[in-house]
Design goal:
seven-stranded mixed sheet; 7 strands; alpha/beta; about 270 residues; globular
Amino acid sequence: MVDVLRRHNVTVGGCGHKALLLGHGFGTDQRAWRRIRPWAERHFLTVSFDFAGSGRDGAGYDGFRHGSLAGFAEDLLAILDAFGVERCAYVGHGSGAMAGVLAGILEPKRFERMVLLAPSACGVDRGRYRSGIDAATMRRMIACMTINYAAWSREFAALAVDAPPASPETAEVASCLAAVRPDVAFRLAAMAFQSDLRGWIDDFEVPAVLVHGEGDPLVPPEAAEHLRFLWPFAESEVLAVSSHLPQLTAPDLVIGVLAKHLKDVARA
């Protein structure tokens, strides 16, 4: 248990008998939730963590295990096991959202509800599926990482938050990226952008809320529509933001969604 908690730099706070896990996406670590945590800790036992390879330590990354999102899903379940959490709510972003979906397919009874920020079934455009990034752009992006990782980090951070390079939000994301070993960041990016979960996530049945920014530069409306068609039981929220990281740039809007959709979970 101690090894799992240390490996993922698990942070626990808050109160209540219901657990809420916060799973970040590519390009960030658990610091991305710092504007959300105060609300979460007033209502839940709140658990945040760093997925393997991310965070200040970047521990636990295994090129084979984490060559797909399945490895991250297994890590998420291992964190629940380490705490002895039988059932929880989960808030995940980007690739962390989709890792949560895979965990929910493996063990659906462990999750009472999921709030999925900017989820996408596929990392790049494939056939008629539009992810927001075509294959050529993805290849250029990964090539830039190998040439000048520091410069790429700043550019990607500014794109993700839709803010000037000198903005505090851009600096926050760039700081998260700077904490990742460049070779690991390269592998994480390749995994995230080349991931294709279509056909693998059809059996997802956990009550879920799909949250998309209407101007998200990395996940377009078509990605949200694909998941809404796939999971007709899922609820949907569209935020009036142009950022891929509304938990950083518009935390009040995200907290409003969480308060709306998790209040019954907290009280149960």
